[in-house]
TrEMBL record:
Membrane recorded as keyword: no
Organism the protein comes from: Sporosarcina psychrophila
Residue ranges of every copy of the ABC transporter domain listed in the record: 2-203
Keywords: ATP-binding, Nucleotide-binding
PROSITE patterns (UniProt xref): ABC_TRANSPORTER_1, ABC_TRANSPORTER_2
Name recorded for this polypeptide: ABC-type multidrug transport system ATPase subunit
InterPro entries per UniProt: AAA+_ATPase, ABC_transporter-like_ATP-bd, ABC_transporter-like_CS, P-loop_NTPase
SUPFAM superfamilies recorded: P-loop containing nucleoside triphosphate hydrolases
Pfam annotation, one family: ABC_tran
């Protein structure tokens, strides 16, 4: 479903990623692990179009990832940033409007356990609440692929278990997941395969 082919990235003439090759199939969770600075977030930034690689390609369903196809990828970033002074329910409606066949409002509320947060404004949310909203928004468009960067950091046990359950259900329905994590629990509960990244190289 998602293919990373011969990906190389340089910053200030220093190799950050070198010949990264990684494929994630539909219905598979791949955990990408490595020390801070190994290049994990750079891979996410390339997929998101924030960083432009020196060489290599990103494929989605066998086709080069273009601007229009990026709507098929959901991003759950480690540090979620939202517009201030916007209610949670307004954020859900806004993200629904971006897609042709989004999840319903009620489904998104259920995904993120957002029932008690709908009237809160984004700048009032705790770290765990921001993660809950980020998960719902990342799934709004029924993506083919989810990129989840340290997804359960800051979540309480109830939400963490709910997240595991909902993600497993989506994977069973064909979602491909690239999981960026330091958490042993996340790897043990979710991952079908673990890939180690060290100094910009897949081990």
């Amino acid at each position: 479903m998602l293919g990373i082919i011969n990906l190389c990235v340089e910053f200030k003439r220093k190799n950050v990623l070198r010949d990264i090759n990684l494929e994630i199939a539909s219905g598979e969770v791949v955990a990408l692990c490595g020390a801070n600075g190994a290049g994990k977030s750079t891979i996410v930034s390339v997929i998101a179009g924030i960083v432009h690689p020196l060489s290599g390609r990103i494929l989605l369903a066998g086709k080069p990832l273009g601007r229009k196809m990026k709507s098929e990828i959901g991003f759950m970033f480690q540090h979620a940033e939202f517009m201030d002074n916007v209610k949670v329910k307004e954020m859900l409606c806004l993200f629904q409007s971006f897609y042709r066949s989004p999840y319903s409002f009620d489904e998104l509320v259920r995904l993120g356990l957002l029932q008690d947060m709908l009237l809160k404004k984004t700048h009032e949310l705790s770290g765990g609440e921001r993660k809950r909203l980020s998960f719902a928004l990342s799934m709004a468009g029924r993506p083919l692929v989810l990129i989840a960067d340290e997804p359960t950091a800051g979540m309480d046990e109830e939400m963490k278990n709910h997240f595991y359950q909902q993600l497993k259900l989506a994977v069973d329905e064909g979602l491909a997941v690239l999981l960026i994590t330091h958490s042993r629990e996340e790897r043990e509960v979710l991952a079908h395969r673990i890939v180690l990244l060290k100094e910009g190289v897949v081990q």
